[in-house]
Specification:
single chain, 203 residues, alpha+beta, 434 Repressor (Amino-terminal Domain), Umud Fragment, subunit A, 7 helices, 28% strand
C-alpha cells in the first residue's frame, strides 16, 4: 500500500518527468530503495530527504510537507525569477511581470502566486535573520498579516520591515531604526508592501 508521502512523491516525480530508475541513479541508491519509500516500507530520514530534494530539484520544505494527510492539494514547486538588489532598485513595482523578462537565473519555489520571484540580497536588504546573498521569496499577491516580514517600496527606496497595523495606522519596524508610523488614509501610491514568504540561505 502506498503511503501518503509515497503517493505525493510519485506525483512530484511525474510532474518532473523523472522515473524511479532515474531518481535512484541520481541519489546513488537502488530502484528497490525508491520503491520502498513510495510504498511506505522505508520512512525517509533527513539524509534521504536532502538527496531527494537535490535530485528532484525541489525545496526541502516541499518534501517535509508531503506527510500532511489533510492536504488535498499538492503544491508543486516551479522555477521563479531571481533578481538582484540593483535590478529591484530600478524596478517599477506596478509591473508584476517584470522579473520574468529581466531575470538572469531561476530557482524553484513552492508557491501559487503567479507573480512570485526571488531577490538575491547583498548589502541593502538585511534584517530579521536575512543576510547577504540569501534568497528571499516575494509573493506580491499574498495577504499581509500583523507581524509579517515584508519588502517595502517607498519614496526613500526599498527595505525590509516588520509589519503591524490597527484600524487607523500602519507601523513598520526594523532592527536598527525608529519605527515608521503611517496613517492608512495617507499611504500614497509611493508606498507598496509585499510579503516575504521564505528566506533561503545560500552558502
Amino acid at each position: 500500500m502506498t503511503s501518503v508521502f509515497g503517493s505525493k512523491l510519485k506525483k512530484l516525480m511525474k510532474s518532473r518527468g523523472i522515473k524511479a530508475i532515474t531518481l535512484a541513479q541520481r541519489m546513488g541508491v537502488s530502484c528497490a530503495y525508491i520503491s520502498q519509500i513510495i510504498t511506505g516500507v522505508r520512512r525517509p530520514g533527513r539524509e534521504t530527504l536532502l538527496k531527494l530534494s537535490k535530485s528532484l530539484e525541489i525545496p526541502l520544505e516541499t518534501l517535509l510537507s508531503l506527510e500532511a494527510e489533510d492536504t488535498e492539494r499538492l503544491y508543486i514547486s516551479r522555477r521563479v525569477p531571481v533578481i538582484d538588489e540593483e535590478q529591484i532598485n530600478s524596478w517599477d513595482f506596478t509591473n508584476l511581470d517584470y522579473p520574468s523578462y529581466t531575470a538572469t537565473s531561476f530557482e524553484y519555489a513552492t508557491t501559487e502566486d503567479p507573480s512570485s520571484f526571488y531577490i538575491k540580497t547583498k548589502d541593502q536588504l538585511k534584517g530579521f535573520g536575512i543576510e547577504s546573498f540569501n534568497l528571499i521569496l516575494i509573493e506580491p499577491n499574498k495577504d499581509i498579516s500583523n507581524g509579517d516580514t515584508i519588502l517595502v517600496s517607498s519614496p526613500e527606496g526599498i527595505s525590509i520591515k516588520r509589519y503591524f497595523t490597527n484600524s487607523d495606522l500602519i507601523i513598520l519596524t526594523n532592527d536598527k531604526n525608529e519605527p515608521t508610523i503611517l496613517s492608512k488614509d495617507k499611504v500614497t501610491e509611493g508606498w507598496k508592501f509585499f510579503k516575504i514568504s521564505q528566506c533561503i540561505k545560500k552558502f
